[in-house]
Amino acid sequence: MKAMLEDKLKNLPEKCGVYLMKNDKGKIIYVGKALNLKNRVRSYFTSQHANSPKTKALVSNIADLEYILTDTEVEALILECNLIKEHKPKYNIRLTDDKNYPYLRVTVQEPFPRIEVVRVMKKDGARYFGPYTSAGAVHETLKLLKRLFPLRSCKQRTFERQERPCLNSHIKRCAAPCSGRISEEEYRKMIQEVILFLEGKQEDLTNLLNKRMEEAAENLQFEKAAEIRDQLLAIEKVIAKQKIISGSFTNMDVINMARGFNEACVQVFFVRSGKLIGRDHFFLSGTDEKKRGEILAAFIKQYYSQVEFIPGEILLPEDLEEAVVLETWLSGKRGSRVHLKVPKRGDKHQLVELVGRNALEALEQEVRTKAQAKDRAEEALKEIAEALEMEEFPQRIECYDISNIQGSESVASMVVFEGGKASPQEYRRFKIKTVEGPNDFASMAEVILRRFKKARENEPKFSTLPDLVIIDGGKGQLSAAREIMHQLGYGAIITVGLAKENEWLFRENCPEPIILPRNSQGLYLIQRIRDEAHRFAITYHRLLRGKRNLASVLNEIPGIGPKRKEALLQHFGLSLNKIKNASLEELLSVPGLSREAASNVWNYFHPAEMNDVNRETANRVLAGL
């Protein structure tokens, strides 16, 4: 053990806090919390953990450690959750792909809120519902809500009266706040109904709508009453599909889990007002050698740190060591008491068991899916190896593609598949620097030169060599690539060109194409690799083209030179719509943008809106009032 690490272990305080363990590259590999930092951290280096392979691996990689003191164990828990989410340490239990789950976002901070699907939660004042594990389910929910409620879908910020509202208003899919047909107060009442629905309080919503329908009928507003009746019928269809779990009309989440090899599946049933309204399952990695209670506690921390609604009761299959601190933390987030309960008998116990069976089924299905995918990948690699007469399966395959429009903004992509699966972290993209005009041969030669030259120089991002290179193009692109590879000493790497028309493979100095069967797994894999290279190249090309077009628009605005143009592009993420819809206050927050320049940008995108009222508002903003 290093002397510096030994000194830190000796001087650890006997106080509450969070500890961070780092490897020799300074990367955080484990985050934990403790009531007594000294005792907890030093225990990793004692003989009691000697028989744990995972702890052995962790300790062998610890080169440094840090700690952060907290006043309470709840503060330590919150900090631990945030650090695990931010750094994704290798040796912590963690939710897999948690950032990819969609949420429904209700923009309650806007005058006339809208609802949309997003992938990341932000502290922007909006209400978030989710996460949903099924993108299809969240889009179906959004579709239903838009059918039930005439919500706006536009992203405009101002709602000055317009004589001709959008088409959605004519087909009664939008309340048209832009036309003044609905007041902000009336619109917000509708948003509260949407929130009741998303919170699973459909019974409250139907009672509210029934009352409103009766009032409309009494006031002889029969058309309005008929619209509310149709809403009620649609909501009642949703309620009819929901299984009644409890007659107590309580809100609760029911959690159970199933274990696999170094992963676990946690299933959650959502019970609202006594009815099962939905369920989700989540996979956690790094669970090997962990107790069930530790896995459940890790899930609760990570899951409830990112959801909007927390029920007053959470049912679990077993007691947790951290139950008290978890209840305190959850109660603080909810704003009222949250109970973690372990039912031993009765209906609730049976419900927990049911959730456990569903978790096991989801885990077994995932294992089967992975096994099938692995078998297909192995079959594909075997077929490719046999077709190309390779001695071993090509574990690392790289594919290159060129993208341009008449030679403009030429770019190239390099995508990597390892073991038959995409490795996005290994993808690289290139902006063509030395070729002018639409010359794919020369562009391919430049890209291959840059890639393998960096490999020869042992640059970390390019140091791993491929077993197989695929050039998206015919014999011309293949010949250009092979010439460079021979010059740099990488001619031994098997390289093929993929002709786009017939999807035949071509080898260097081999006039006859290699034709894989149309229904072979090998051809399917090559097609996926080629399509991914094309997608990645097109994405980069569009990014550069969009930046160029946006820059050309900004060139027309007085007082916006190269530096201010770059500041605007960076601040608004290369989005013309964001710059166009930005308020004067937002424009003034751009570094290096003067008041006059901000006013010029706003005036350029809002020429018709500069009436006397807006001029007065603009003058107040620019004057700093």
Question: How would you characterize this protein structure?
Answer:
InterPro entries: GIY-YIG_endonuc, GIY-YIG_endonuc_sf, GIY-YIG_UvrC_Cho, Hlx-hairpin-Hlx_DNA-bd_motif, RuvA_2-like, UVR_dom, UVR_dom_sf, UvrABC_protein_C. Residues 203-238 form the UVR domain. It is found in: Cytoplasm. The protein has helices at residues 3-10, 37-43, 53-60, 73-87, 135-148, 167-170, 184-198, 202-218, 222-240, 292-304, 323-334, 346-387, 440-456, 475-488, 521-554, 562-571, 576-581, 584-588, 595-605, 612-622; strands at residues 17-22, 28-34, 64-69, 94-95, 103-106, 115-118, 127-129, 243-244, 252-260, 263-272, 275-285, 313-315, 339-341, 396-405, 408-418, 421-422, 428-431, 468-472, 494-498, 505-507. It folds into five domains: 3-92, 3-Layer(aba) Sandwich (GIY-YIG endonuclease), CATH 3.40.1440.10; 100-200, no CATH class; 252-364, Ribonuclease H-like superfamily/Ribonuclease H (Nucleotidyltransferase, domain 5, 2-Layer Sandwich), CATH 3.30.420.10; 396-545, 2-Layer Sandwich (Nucleotidyltransferase, domain 5); 555-622, 5' to 3' exonuclease, C-terminal subdomain (DNA polymerase, domain 1), CATH 1.10.150. It is 45% helix and 18% strand. The chain has 20 helices and 20 strands. Helix 11 links the parallel strand 12 and strand 13. The protein has 625 residues and is an alpha+beta fold. Strands 4, 8, 9, 10, 11, 12 and 13 form a seven-stranded mixed beta sheet that branches. Strands 14, 15, 16, 17, 18, 19 and 20 form a seven-stranded mixed beta sheet that branches. The longest helix is centred in the middle third of the chain and has 42 residues, at 346-387.
